[in-house]
């Protein structure tokens, strides 16, 4: 870990805090490595059932990769094969919630899109500004925008590099809710707490199922869904859920 990326767990909810507010929470290679390690801990720990990702301070969720560090790669190929924090978040098996508290630019926008649920404060601003500097995003920018907001809106962002505000992001479907800045993280933690009460294996397979819905042909996605349902149905948690329903009590899920 690093002082500029903090990882905590409480009540089965992990929080990943990008903590470099004086640099708009821009990510360094050391921070990227720490985020990769944090996700690995989430995947390995039965104590984590949901993850909240947010940025420190009031100005930024994350401005993406720190541009001043990019010339530190010996070759473009080394840069291409770097440890990517967006890849790490996409590989998180636990449900993830982005609490976007300001600028989400470049890799910061990709970080948010790598999460399953996105909430924004009224101060949030979103952009894919790489084109203004001579390159394009590489952490899932085009795919994430196309899935989230459609081809024309994605093209608008990718080809101009201009920012959109939180209300526009909500209208386009990039975020689910827009909240007052002082309510943002609490709302993300509230949603995470609800998810943490659900059957963990079912939550993890629901993530797989949703991704399949975007990446598989229609008939194969439905077939895969039924396979995942059968896996869940055979778990101890599913038996507990059925028993709790019959006995009119709250279930106690154990990720088994």
UniProtKB/TrEMBL annotation:
InterPro entries: ClpP/crotonase-like_dom_sf, Enoyl-CoA_hyd/isom_CS, Enoyl-CoA_hydra/iso, Enoyl-CoA_hydra_C. Pfam families: ECH_1 (PF00378). Keywords: Lyase. Transmembrane segments: none annotated. PROSITE patterns: ENOYL_COA_HYDRATASE. Coiled coil: none annotated. Belongs to the enoyl-CoA hydratase/isomerase family. PANTHER family: ENOYL-COA HYDRATASE, MITOCHONDRIAL, ENOYL-COA HYDRATASE-RELATED. This is Enoyl-CoA hydratase/isomerase family protein. It comes from Sphingomonas floccifaciens.
